[in-house]
Inverse folding.
C-alpha cells in the first residue's frame, strides 16, 4: 500500500502523496459543490459544466499547472515558503484532506473540506511555532477565479474574461460576469464566484490582489511580485480591475508567534446567485470554532451514511478499504461521470447505466428512494426500445451528451436487472404495474432515421391524438427486451449498433453483432417469467399498447427464429407502427406471454451455446463491420475477450463443461502472471477500424486489454452465481491485491481500471464499486432476497476469514436493524452452513440454502447467527 490506515474509520496517512499524481474528492451531501484536490493543492472547484470557480483541471494539470493550485505563501524573514511545493504528509478521511509539514521550526497544516450541509470549499491553514525563538510571518493566499464555463478554456478565453466585473468585499473577492458568453445565445449572468478569507477569528485581510495581472506584477506565477516583489495589495475597487482574469488573493496581517504560538487562516470558496446567501455562509464559518465544528459535522455525516451497511471481515486494512469502496456509489451519484481530473470528457449529468447503478447502490439502504429513481429513469425509454443517454441534475433526459444520433445495444439489459433486485428485496410486485411516460425526441427507429417534423420541447411521448401516453413498468421492460430479440444481424445475433458496455467497440454500426449482450437478453427473457408467474396469481392478463403485440409473434403468428431476415422484417414492421403510436391498449393473457418469452429465451440461449462456442475453449463475443467473427484462432495467435465469457456464465447459457473450459482459457490467455488480474482482451496486434476505437489505444490501457474492474467484478459475480466459489474468490482477491499494491499509486479506492504497469486510473466514479459491494453481500455472504424473504446461501472459503473465525454484516431491512454473524467452526477450504439461529430460534434448511421470512425479523435489532464448517 502507498498509505497506512490509522483507525477503523477509513482514515489513512501517506508520506508519498506528492509522487502519486492522484486526487481526492470533496463534496457536500447534495453535490452542490464539486471539488478535486491533490497533494500539491491542485484540482478544481465547480457546480456543473457551466460554472467553474477555478480553471478546469485535467489529470496533467495536477502536477504541471500552477493556475490549478490553491496557493498559499508564507514569508519568514527573507525566505518565502510556497505551500503547494512542500513534500508533506497527507492525512485523509471522510471527507477531508489534510497536509502537514515541519519546516524551519514551523508546523504547517493545510486542511481542505466541504461542509456536508453547505456548498463551499473551506481551506484551513494552521501554522504553529515549534522553535524556541519568536518568529514573524506574513501570509499571502492566492486562488485563481475562472468564473465561467468549461468550454471557454479554448473558446473565447480572453473575450469571455472581458465580461468579468470584480467586487471587493472587506473579506474577499466576488466576481460577477455581466453575461454568459455563448454564441448560440448570450444570456445575462446571475452567478457570483467568490473567495473570502480571514485570519483567526474573523480578522480582516490587509488587502487584496484581485486580478492575475495585479498579482503577477512584472513577473509571473512562479515568482509573483505580490509575494516576491514590492506590489502592495489593493484596498479598494478600481475600474481597471474589470475585464481581467480574476483571482482571490489576500495579504494577511503580520503575526509574531512566540514559542508554541499559533495562527490560523481560512479561505472560503464557492458559487452562488445570492449575495446575501454568501454572507450568511460566511457568518456560519467566520471563526476557528465554527470551522472546526463544521469539519467534525462533515466527518460524522459521511461515517453515518456509510454505517447503514456494515461489513466486518476482521481485517483492518480490508475493512477500511471497503469503507472507501462503499462511498464510491454515492460519489458517482453526486459527481456523475464527470468533474474529477480523469473524467475530463464529461459535460455533466449521468449516463443511462449510471442511473441504474445509482439505484442499485440506493437499494442497499433506501429501497423507497431507489424505487423513485427507477420510476423516473423508466421514463427515459423510447417507443423503439432505445433510450435517452443522459439525465441532467434537474432530472431532465437528453438524447446524447455530444448531440450524436446513436444507440448502445446493452442499455435494455440494466433496467430489468435492477428492478428485479428491488422487487425481490421488497416484495413490491405492484412496481411492475406502475405507469410512467416514455421519452420522445427527433431520433426514431433506433437512430436509423430522424423525425424532422419533431418540434416538441418536453420530450414526452404522445399518441396520434396528442395525448401523453403512459405504460406500465412491465411494458417498458418487455419493450426493451422484445425489440432486441428481433434486432439481429446476419448471424442471428443482436446487433452491436453504436457500442455495448464496451464503449470502445464503436465502429461497426451497420453489421456489428454482440454475442456478449445477447446472452443477457436471453437471460432476461427467461427471468421475467418468474415475476409474470407471480402476477398471474393476481390477474390473468396485462395491458400493453397495441403495437407491442407485433413483437409477441408466438401469440399473433409465429415466425421461424432461425431466419434472421424474418426477424428483421418483423422488427421493421414494429418500428414503422410505433413511430406514431395509436395510444390504444390491448389485453395479453399472462400465460400466453410466458409461453412467448420462454420460447424466445430457449431459442436464443440454445443458438448462442451451439453456434458461438469456439474450439479454443471459450465463447466468441462479436462480429465486426465486415460481418467477420472477431475471436478465436488467428494463425499462431488467439483472440479472446473477457466480456462474452462473463455474460455467458452469468446468464446461465454456458453449461458446466463450458464454464470449466472458460476458466482454463481465462488463465491461459487473459490472466497476468505478475498481478494475477484478468485483462479485457488479448493483444489483437492491430488498429481494428472494423470494430472500434479501443484497438487504437495502447495495449493494456482503457478498453484495449486493461484490467477493467467492472468486468472483473462481474466475472467474480458470475462464478459465484453458478457455484464456482474458488474461482469467484480468486477474481475478487485479484482486484483487492491490485488496488492495494504500491504499483497502483492510488489512495484506497477501486479504480475503473489498472493499466499494464498496475497503475489505477479513473478513480472514485466507477460503477464497479456497486457491483463489488453487492457481490460481497449477495454472493460471498449469501444474503439474497426472494419476494421479501431472505435466502441465505453464503459462498465462503477459509481465506475469507482474515483473522479469527468471525465475519459480521449489518443491514437495514424493513426499517429494522439486521445483524448477521458468520462463524467458521472449522478451517476447511470450502465452507457450508451447518446451523442458522434467528433471534434465538434454530432454523431448518431447504436444500443448500436457508430461507428467513421477514416476519421472523420483528425486533428493532435482529441477530442471525450462521455456523459454517
Amino acid at each position: 500500500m502507498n498509505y497506512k490506515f490509522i483507525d477503523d474509520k477509513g482514515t489513512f496517512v501517506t508520506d508519498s502523496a506528492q509522487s502519486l499524481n492522484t486526487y481526492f474528492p470533496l463534496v457536500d451531501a447534495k453535490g452542490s459543490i464539486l471539488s478535486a484536490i491533490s497533494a500539491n493543492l491542485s484540482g478544481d472547484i465547480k457546480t456543473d459544466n457551466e460554472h467553474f470557480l477555478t480553471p478546469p483541471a485535467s489529470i496533467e494539470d495536477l502536477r504541471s499547472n500552477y493556475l490549478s493550485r490553491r496557493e498559499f505563501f508564507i514569508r519568514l524573514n527573507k525566505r518565502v515558503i510556497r505551500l503547494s511545493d512542500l513534500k508533506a504528509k497527507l492525512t485523509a478521511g471522510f471527507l477531508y484532506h489534510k497536509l502537514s509539514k515541519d519546516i524551519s521550526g514551523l508546523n504547517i497544516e493545510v486542511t481542505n473540506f466541504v461542509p456536508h450541509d453547505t456548498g463551499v470549499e473551506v481551506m484551513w491553514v494552521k501554522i504553529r511555532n515549534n522553535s524556541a525563538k519568536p518568529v514573524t510571518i506574513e501570509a499571502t493566499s492566492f486562488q485563481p477565479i475562472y468564473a465561467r464555463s468549461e468550454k471557454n478554456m479554448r473558446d473565447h478565453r480572453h473575450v469571455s474574461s472581458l465580461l468579468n466585473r470584480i467586487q471587493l468585499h472587506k473579506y474577499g473577492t466576488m466576481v460577477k460576469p455581466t453575461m454568459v458568453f455563448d454564441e448560440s445565445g448570450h444570456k445575462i449572468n446571475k452567478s457570483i464566484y467568490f473567495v473570502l478569507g480571514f485570519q483567526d477569528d474573523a480578522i480582516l485581510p490587509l488587502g487584496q490582489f484581485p486580478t492575475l495581472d495585479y498579482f503577477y506584477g512584472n513577473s509571473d506565477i512562479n515568482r509573483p511580485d505580490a509575494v516576491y516583489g514590492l506590489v502592495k495589495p489593493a484596498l479598494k475597487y478600481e475600474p481597471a480591475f474589470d475585464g481581467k482574469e480574476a483571482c482571490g488573493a489576500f495579504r494577511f496581517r503580520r503575526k509574531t508567534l512566540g514559542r508554541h504560538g499559533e495562527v490560523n487562516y481560512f479561505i472560503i470558496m464557492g458559487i452562488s446567485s445570492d449575495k446575501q446567501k454568501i454572507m450568511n455562509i460566511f457568518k456560519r464559518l467566520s471563526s476557528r470554532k465554527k470551522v472546526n465544528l463544521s469539519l467534525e459535522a462533515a466527518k460524522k455525516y459521511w461515517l453515518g451514511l456509510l454505517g447503514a451497511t456494515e461489513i466486518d471481515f476482521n481485517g483492518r486494512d480490508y475493512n477500511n478499504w471497503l469503507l472507501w469502496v462503499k462511498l464510491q456509489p454515492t460519489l458517482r451519484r453526486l459527481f456523475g461521470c464527470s468533474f474529477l481530473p480523469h473524467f475530463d470528457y464529461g459535460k455533466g449529468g449521468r449516463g443511462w447505466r449510471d442511473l441504474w447503478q445509482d439505484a442499485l447502490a440506493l437499494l442497499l439502504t433506501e429501497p423507497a428512494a431507489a424505487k423513485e429513481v427507477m420510476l423516473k429513469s423508466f421514463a427515459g425509454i423510447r417507443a423503439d426500445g432505445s433510450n435517452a443517454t443522459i439525465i441532467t441534475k434537474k432530472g431532465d433526459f437528453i438524447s446524447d451528451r455530444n448531440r450524436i444520433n446513436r444507440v448502445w445495444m446493452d442499455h435494455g439489459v440494466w433496467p430489468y436487472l435492477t428492478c428485479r433486485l428491488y422487487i425481490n428485496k421488497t416484495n413490491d410486485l405492484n412496481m411492475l404495474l406502475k405507469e410512467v411516460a416514455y421519452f420522445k425526441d427527433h431520433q426514431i427507429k433506433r437512430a436509423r432515421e430522424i423525425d424532422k417534423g419533431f418540434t416538441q420541447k418536453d420530450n414526452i411521448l404522445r399518441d396520434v391524438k396528442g395525448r401523453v401516453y403512459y405504460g406500465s413498468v412491465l411494458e417498458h421492460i418487455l419493450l426493451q427486451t422484445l425489440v432486441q430479440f428481433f434486432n439481429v444481424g446476419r448471424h442471428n445475433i443482436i446487433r452491436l449498433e453504436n457500442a455495448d458496455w464496451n464503449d470502445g467497440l464503436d465502429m461497426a454500426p451497420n453489421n456489428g453483432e454482440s454475442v456478449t449482450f445477447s446472452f443477457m437478453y436471453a437471460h432476461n427473457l427467461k427471468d421475467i417469467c418468474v415475476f409474470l408467474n407471480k402476477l398471474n396469481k393476481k390477474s390473468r392478463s396485462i395491458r400493453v399498447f397495441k403495437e407491442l403485440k407485433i413483437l409477441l409473434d408466438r401469440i399473433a403468428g409465429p415466425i421461424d427464429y432461425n431466419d434472421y431476415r424474418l426477424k428483421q422484417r418483423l422488427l421493421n414492421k414494429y418500428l414503422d407502427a410505433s413511430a406514431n403510436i395509436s395510444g390504444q391498449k390491448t389485453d395479453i393473457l399472462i400465460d400466453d406471454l410466458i409461453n412467448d418469452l420462454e420460447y424466445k429465451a430457449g431459442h436464443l440461449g440454445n443458438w448462442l451455446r451451439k453456434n458461438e462456442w469456439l474450439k479454443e475453449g471459450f465463447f466468441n463475443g462479436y462480429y465486426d463491420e465486415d460481418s467477420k467473427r472477431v475471436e478465436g484462432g488467428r494463425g499462431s495467435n488467439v483472440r479472446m475477450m473477457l466480456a462474452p465469457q462473463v455474460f455467458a456464465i452469468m446468464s446461465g447459457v454456458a453449461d458446466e463443461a463450458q464454464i470449466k473450459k472458460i476458466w482454463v482459457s481465462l488463465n491461459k490467455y487473459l490472466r497476468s502472471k505478475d498481478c494475477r488480474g484478468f485483462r479485457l482482451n488479448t493483444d489483437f496486434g492491430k488498429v481494428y477500424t472494423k470494430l472500434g476505437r479501443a484497438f487504437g489505444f495502447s495495449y493494456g490501457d482503457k478498453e484495449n486489454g486493461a484490467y477493467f474492474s467492472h468486468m472483473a467484478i462481474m466475472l467474480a459475480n458470475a462464478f459465484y452465481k453458478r457455484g464456482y466459489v474458488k474461482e469467484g474468490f480468486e477474481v475478487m482477491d485479484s482486484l483487492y491485491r491490485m488496488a492495494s499494491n504500491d504499483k497502483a499509486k492510488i489512495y484506497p479506492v477501486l479504480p475503473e481500471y489498472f493499466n499494464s504497469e498496475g497503475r489505477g486510473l479513473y478513480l472514485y466514479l466507477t460503477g464497479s464499486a456497486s457491483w463489488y459491494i453487492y457481490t460481497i453481500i449477495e454472493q460471498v455472504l449469501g444474503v439474497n432476497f426472494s419476494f421479501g424473504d431472505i435466502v441465505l446461501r453464503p459462498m465462503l472459503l477459509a481465506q475469507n476469514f482474515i483473522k479469527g473465525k468471525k465475519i459480521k454484516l449489518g443491514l437495514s431491512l424493513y426499517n429494522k436493524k439486521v445483524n448477521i454473524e458468520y462463524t467458521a467452526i472449522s478451517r476447511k477450504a470450502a465452507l457450508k452452513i451447518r446451523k442458522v439461529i434467528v433471534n434465538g430460534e434454530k432454523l431448518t434448511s431447504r436444500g443448500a440454502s436457508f430461507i428467513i421470512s421477514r416476519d421472523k425479523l420483528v425486533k428493532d435489532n435482529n441477530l442471525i447467527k450462521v455456523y459454517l464448517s
Notes: The longest strand covers residues 135-145. The domain at 781-868 is CATH 2.60.420.10 (Maltose phosphorylase, domain 3). The two ends are 33 Å apart (CA to CA).
